Amino acid sequence: MSIFADAIEFIFVSRESRAGGSDVGGADNLPLLWAHLQLTAASMALAIAIAVPLGLLLAHSRRGAFLAVSASNVGRAVPSVALIALFVSFLPGLDEFLNVTLALAALAIPPILTNTYVGVKQVSADAVDAARGMGMTGAQLTRRIELPLAAPLVFGGVRTSTVNVVATATIAPLVGVTTLGDPITAQSVYGQEGLIGACIIVAALAVAAEIGLGAVQRAVTPRGVSLETRSPRTNMRTTRPTLAVLAALCCALMLAACGGDDAETTTTTAAGEGTTTAEQAEPAGGGATITKNADNAKVTFTIGSKNFTEQKILGEVYAQGLEAAGYTVKTDLNLGDEKTALKAVNDGTIDAYPEYTGTALLSFFEVKADAIPKDPGEAFEQARSFFEKDGLKAFPATPFTSSNEVALTKEKATELGITKISELADKAGELTLYGSPECRRRLDCLLGLQEVYGLKFKKFVPVDIAQRHEVLTSGRADVSIVFTTDPQIKREEFVLLEDDKGMFPPYNSTLVMQQAKADEAGPDLETTITALQEGLTDEAMQELNARVDLDKKDPQQVATEFLQESGLIAK
Q: Which of 216, 238, 293, 567 is deepest in the core (most CB within 10 A)?
């Protein structure tokens, strides 16, 4: 119940965003609401301007009308996201607002077109003949007889489409158009209360649109044409969308609850669907072979992990390495997000799992993004002390960090002659930056680049994180925000610009374990974990992730290859 109360408060009261650096909620919702209304109004105006005249034309046509209306309705089966992606892909030169407006209008046309066609076709032939007998022209007949009598059905289509567009406009931020969908698509910035609050506003807006258009419908329908004469099926058609949008918003809440944190999303990308001919590098080793101690067999570990590639690889590395040291090891990988994994440790379902220092500070210990130490060692010590208070041990962190970075293609970096982020200062105005939808309001993304480095890019375009590398290789993006351990970096020879002002917080990985289990394991435990982590550099994790995501190998096999190539276990 408290999260619902927080959501209601979010609607009316402004507060600092979870990512820090900007305010969200309260009065800051008004620009989002206005943008949402503008997009909805533009889409509906275009849809009505096309669908009503076309419906009238088809109703008066004797050939192909039924086929045309049927074909229009088939378009309703196309998923909304796919429709928007189609327009953005095939009309890339258009403004994002216009692209989304066209896509939403295409979504809105079928119900209006169908209802206009059916409404006009159902006008009594006797009424039409009588009007013609009185000397009315075709235009007069349409304006004074057909449209007034068809008004209930036409408005039914408009109401259906309006509610659908209000709901679908929430995904517009994914392609660069800010709406009330921003808090829904950027939970790491707005928090769960922002997501739920935005869903409440959208639901209220959909209901208000349904009620308001219903009132207009009653006002313009001629006396004698009773709205109640519509069939139950027609009534259901106009009320069902409201129920549908409410159900869709509930689904959004449930899906959001299953999500993980932004800095560690799975590295599977569109670029990874193909094969690669790049030479595979072996991860750097350096550690001595792990020695098996028979006394360790009495200690049993269950190693867990979260639900994405990098975590599964790390889970297997720890499990196989500890097994090589003689411990009895089980695995329970693919647990879910960080909160699910931490709960599993606390309730004893697992004994340990890898976590990121930045994630722990943000998600578990509620440290603001701009307050996280930029030094990896300080960030680890802060996280370690927090874990220690909860009866958990955080082992020294890995060399690699899975944080945001600014990437360019090798050719673009050479053309610009830059190696550091600060060197973008006099060039950003001519460059297009791509990043995740929430990047716009995160201090470790666009907001930080603006405030810390003073960069003003020509344009920022939100993109699904699965496409953040493809936009570089395709040339759509000049610059893209990627993660340091993304597998495409090495394979595609991307250049990561040096964060010379220390803007990005560290997300080094640490193995989190129950303190009691760590005490039980004896001195071999920390020695083994230190040896396992020594070779886990940024470059090594890029390569290991690539073998799973791009080469389609199993994480267990990739972990074995790493341990063998590092000399930690025998081949």
A: 238
